[in-house]
Design goal:
single chain; seven-stranded mixed sheet; two-stranded antiparallel sheet; 10 helices; 9 strands
Length: 282
């Protein structure tokens, strides 16, 4: 017979021994997930007996987490912009740093904006924009079938499927002809191929194609920046999440067709977002 309190203590100790810094929090999340309850209800049951079946599921989850399997893949959820997103293997887990990209774009868009979100992944950027901008319409594009399925699921779960159109294909390729958008936004793969092996062990479970930006790390930026003018209105916005050491190269690529280029730092003081506006065409 195991009490909830004892299970939490066991889980915390196991995860600490595995070198996980957030051991206590992770143990609470995993036990809540195994029991199908929220954290508040879990903490109210600490002196109650944990059902054996729930304990078995919890131990299974602990074993996965000890091997550095991402907790969001275990629970199937990730919070982003205050919203609950579904995630699963084969789809990049949304990062809190990417919220800066969404916040930047939200503050620049006109009413009834049309937005193109490239490399949409779980749909975190597209769905968040549609959720907080009630009149915006978003084209969410990805080359991954798994990503497109997840983005559609999140648009439906968060009640914006009528304004988020998910399209499968390589960057701009699946867009309908004649689209003139107010913004192109993207968090593309930007890790250098040579740096992939040195990423945190949790990241090794995520899809490499959503992370690997080629030998230079900027291959996707070159294509996105070069082709964006074909799909943007004059004065339209191009906003990109960037690697901490890629700001100069990305800003230089944007300089030909864009004005008012800015690089915005995240809470850690690292370059995170490059943004500019389309110059007027002659």
């Amino acid at each position: 017979m195991t009490l909830y309190r004892e299970a939490l203590k066991e889980g915390t100790e196991r995860l600490e021994a595995a070198g996980i810094d957030t051991a206590r929090l992770d143990a609470e999340v995993l036990l809540s997930c195994a029991c199908g309850i929220n954290r508040a209800k879990l903490l109210s049951r600490l002196n109650e007996v944990l059902p054996e079946k729930r304990y078995g599921s919890y131990c299974k989850y602990l074993g996965m987490r000890e091997n550095r399997y991402p907790i969001s893949y275990i629970t199937g959820h990730r919070e982003f912009m205050g919203l609950d997103f579904a995630v699963s293997e084969g789809v990049l887990i949304p990062r809190p740093e990417t919220e800066l990209l969404v916040e930047t774009v939200m503050g620049m868009l006109p009413q009834n904006a049309a937005v193109i979100d490239l490399c949409t992944g779980s749909g975190a950027i597209a769905v968040s924009l549609a959720h907080y901008l009630y009149d915006a319409h978003i084209y969410a594009l990805d080359i991954s079938d798994a990503a497109c399925s997840t983005a559609k699921r999140n648009a439906e779960r968060l009640h914006v499927a009528d304004r988020v159109k998910v399209l499968h294909g390589d960057l701009y390729q699946p867009l309908p002809a004649g689209i003139a958008a107010d913004a192109v936004v993207s968090n593309p793969p930007y890790i250098r191929s040579g740096d992939m092996a040195g990423l945190m062990s949790e990241v090794s479970y995520e899809p490499a194609e959503a992370l690997d930006g080629g030998g230079s790390g900027i291959e996707f930026y070159e294509r996105i920046i070069e082709e964006a003018p074909q799909h943007l209105r004059d004065n339209g916005i191009l906003a990109l999440e960037i690697g901490y050491d890629e700001a100069d190269e990305v800003a230089s690529m944007m300089d030909r067709d864009y004005k008012d280029i800015r690089v915005i730092k995240d809470m850690a003081g690292l370059d995170r977002v490059a943004v500019g506006r389309m110059r007027a065409r002659d």
